[in-house]
Please model this.
Amino acid sequence: MDVFQYRVLKWMIGTNTTTIVAGGNGSGTALNQLSLAWGGLTLDSLSNVYISDSGNARVMKWAPGSLSGQVVAGGNGIGNGSNQLSSSIGSIAVDSKFTVFVADTGNYRIQMWPVGASSGITIIPTNTNGMYPLALELDSMGNIYVGGSNIMKYNVATKTATTIVFSYGNSSNQVGMVNGLRFAANNTNLFAVDSSNHRVQRYSVIKNCGGKSCISPFTSSFSAEILNPS
Model:
């Protein structure tokens, strides 16, 4: 994201060629503009680009080759209403049904916006444990992982949240502040950008861990927390 040029660029591998895929029309609120889009960027299975347009308190979707975007979350001013987002938006994620999940950082919550919804649903209110949500990732089962002052998993089947990596430390089973989460393509490794400890942590999903799938740092024998049911 080229934040201060209010645009998103696509770089062709092996060349110096770039293409504007979103924005590029100055800062503003129009559907062909962005404003301080510094938070999150992701793609869906159809190569649509989703952007955290924090300055406009909204998430925008840009189809390939489109000259303007579509508001898919927020866009109703800065606030904490169900149809609003804060001006501080972290990561975003999109599932196979094109549902948009938003780390609404300034409102201490994770919002879910189904396709065509005019308002979001709070599925994880992180203010209950003082967590400042920055990072967001989905696994292949649709479970949600949230990073901030710790790493949490939200189980979509049981609708429960569990802390899987604890905070305020620099050992391999702790984090300082996580502002990025990403699963490897096969969902066997979870990578966490632990910015306050100046490192990237790699966690292994162990398939045979007492009959369940667990998570463990590669650098420690730390007793793993449950990630996925077997």
